[in-house]
Design goal:
Blueprint (H helix, E strand, L loop, with lengths): L17 H10 L1 E4 L5 H15 L9 E4 L15 E5 L8 H5 L1 H11 L6 E11 L10 E4 L7 E2 L4 E7 L10 E3 L11 E2 L13 E2 L9 E3 L6 E4 L5 E3 L8 E10 L4 E2 L8 H17 L11 H8 L1 E2 L8
Antiparallel strand pairs: 1-12, 2-3, 3-4, 4-14, 4-16, 5-13, 6-15, 7-12, 7-14, 8-11, 8-13, 9-10
Bound molecules: 2-oxoglutaric acid (AKG).
Pathway: Lipid metabolism; fatty acid metabolism
EC number: 1.14.11.18
Keywords: Dioxygenase, Iron, Metal-binding, Oxidoreductase, Vitamin C
Length: about 300
């Protein structure tokens, strides 16, 4: 197999300099300016708004609502929806995952020009104005908690700001270098105002851990490692804070692993239950069927342009 770019942190990549690659290797993230142009972001925003209005919604999309807004007068539509997931087959939104300026960077971080890359997990995060219950926060967590494939170094997330994101509207918060540590145990935080579905946080996370607020303009993109500890703050503005994101895996390197008996079994059980409910809505009863967590990811994942290799 050809050398992966990340095995050569001291060499320039195709688009990143050796210095930029080393920054990622040391800190677990890198933020690049102006990666996605405004006209593409406008297409993604428009498509998201259509989905919020129920137009062209495919059965596999996961549409998540803010727990406190869902109980308020804004039960539906863009005001209530915090997240759209699983848009790998969306004719407009998947263009983000394929966007060359994003993919080229990912290749430099987890593979090389010929690696078979897969889009594993997709999200459009729409952080609405907080109701005062602080449910717009996202607890500090590691994305690897949700993934039954390894190695972690073969996975990278791109997260693109769709507008100005800053401390006031709940920008991303990262703990630089934390990707060098282990995967920590996760659970729902015990927040008074409630916690959104599947927003797990690191148990016993020390809020005094030094962290960095990543303020970004529209189109700026942060690339980060799946073990990087991160989260996001409350949206204290009257506007939405939108970002679009894709987790990529190098399918030549990564393989599904059995996570039974590990610290992320609770998360996987919850995701399996969500999947079963979705089938039940379509009249398919899987109540007594044992679903394999890896199969859920096999169905979700989509190759970018190559083949599935191991995934
Ligand atoms: O966009 C955000 O607020 C954080 C999203 C995030 O970290 C996640 O969904 O895993």
């Amino acid at each position: 197999m050809a050398t992966q770019s990340f095995e050569n942190w001291d060499k320039d990549g195709e688009v990143l300099t050796a210095e930029q690659k080393q920054f990622y290797e040391k800190n677990g993230y890198i933020m690049l300016k102006n990666v996605v142009p405004q006209y593409e972001l406008d297409r993604f925003r428009h498509r998201f708004q259509e989905i919020c209005e129920g137009k062209g919604v495919r059965p596999e999309y996961t549409i998540m609502k803010d727990i406190s807004i869902a109980k308020s007068e804004f039960k539906a539509g863009e005001r209530a929806i915090t997240k759209l997931q699983d848009f790998n087959n969306d004719p407009v939104l998947f263009d983000y995952c394929k966007y060359p300026a994003v993919v080229d960077v990912v290749r430099d971080l987890i593979g090389n020009a010929t690696s078979n890359l897969m889009s594993m997990h997709t999200m459009l995060i729409n952080k609405p104005p907080d109701t005062g219950k602080l449910t717009s926060r996202h607890p500090m967590h590691q994305d690897l908690q949700y993934f039954p494939f390894r190695p972690a170094d073969g996975i990278c997330c791109s997260w693109t700001a769709m507008e100005w994101v800053h401390r006031g509207n709940g920008c991303l918060v990262v703990v630089p270098g934390s990707h060098k540590g282990p995967l920590h145990p996760h659970d729902y935080p015990k927040w008074e105002g409630g916690v959104n579905k599947a927003y797990h946080g690191i148990v016993d996370y020390d809020p005094n851990t030094p962290r960095l607020h990543v303020e970004m303009n529209a189109g700026d993109t942060v690339f980060f490692h799946p073990l990087l500890i991160h989260g996001s703050g409350t949206n204290r503005t009257e506007g939405f804070r939108k970002a679009i994101s894709c987790h990529y895996a190098n399918a030549d390197l990564c393989k599904y692993v059995d996570i039974k008996g590990t610290t992320h079994e609770t998360t996987s059980n919850e995701i399996i239950e969500i999947a079963k409910k979705r089938f039940a809505k379509r009249g398919i009863d899987l109540k007594d069927i044992e679903l394999d967590f890896a199969d859920i990811w096999r169905v979700r994942a989509r190759p970018l342009d190559g083949n599935r290799a191991n995934l």
